[in-house]
Amino acid sequence: MKKAKDILTSNNVVRAVLVLAVWLTLIAVALVVSRHVKDEVGSDSEYKSLVVVESGDTLSKLLLEQGFTNNDVLQIAKVLKSDADITSLRADNDKIEFVRSEETEPVSKIVIIPSPWRQVEVTCTENGEWQCKTVDIERDTRAVYKTGEILDGDSFYLAGMRAGIPAGILAEVYDLLAFEMDFERDVRAGQKFSVLYEENFSGGEKIDNGRVLAVEFEALRGNVKMYRFKKADGKTGYYDENGNGAIKSLKRTPINNAKVTSSFSNSRKHPVLGYTRAHKGVDFRASTGTPIPAAGAGRVVARSYNKGHGNYVKIRHNGSYETLYAHMSRFAKGVVVGTNVKQGQTIGYVGSTGLSTGPHLHYEIIKDGKHVNPLTVKLPAISNLGKEDKEKFLEYRKVLDEGMEQLSKHPDWFIQL
Ligand SMILES: [Zn+2]
After folding, report:
1. pTM value?
2. Helix (H, G, I), strand (E, B), or coil: what is residue 321?
3. Is residue 15 part of a domain?
4. How far is the CA of 316 from the centre of ligand 1 (A)?
């Protein structure tokens, strides 16, 4: 990988990207304390042992195993709760390092590692009191750019994997694009896409991926572009190239990756009834038990059964929209009439109840009491930018576009954030 310095010296615009990106997209960098995990490892004056927390492990069990007294265990648990807000350990996630001056000496320091970016150190003072402090690990964040193309018989997911986009980032991109695109009908061979996202490094080693900063997809109905942007009030969101909110109040396809098996139509031959009848929604194929997320935030106004829809849920959203989800095998726990649900919250599970030939989700959007085509209806954005934010956004977008232009010519470069 070529260092961003090369980009910076070769192009002033990218320097602006860097500065703006730091200002606008990053948070909490100032909180980072300069410290590397690696610096401690390899120091030969200390003896260290690392324990990965397993299911069934508790702090007291692990401490007692290391030779702590019951009194010490109580004191340590107390400071961890009050100073680091740690009350329990997470199996297969948290690690604990025990440090001794010699292998046979008692533990002088406990380091709890709940994430690659945070460590909690517990030490004993000379007068025998336990104290703890939290250490943030220095994070070196780089923006990398990947481009891909849909090939014949491809899915967006396969093309994305081939482009080297990590699965987690791809899932996020999928979620973002699902507001704008219908992956069944809008994805064709020859279409290109690109993603700018963060990679986090520590001590020169890649630790994890960060956030998606920008996405572009050449869709059939025009290019879809989205940029992550931080507003003056500190809130971040995704916006299209004109600064309009890219996150819509409703999703066209509630279940990611589900194929459309029957589209919205005012007349179609009903597969069970046999005669021609309007199909007031879209059918998505999915296996029984697949969670059905709410397409948008709202209030459950129906959770019921009828012959046609089988088990169904209807949600009223802000404004004039309602959505309906039919043929569920079962409802999600706690989802009853009157429940407020969040966008993406599971409301039930795919099934084949009612007039249905196989497991699928039948999804309807009702606007002002009238059924509309979920795949084509123009949906309102959750939030647009105010005047000042918008001006800043347009500036930011321009430098980001120019930065991506540079990165597209030099795929091994990255932007140091
Ligand atoms: Zn249907």
Report:
1. 0.69
2. strand
3. no
4. 19
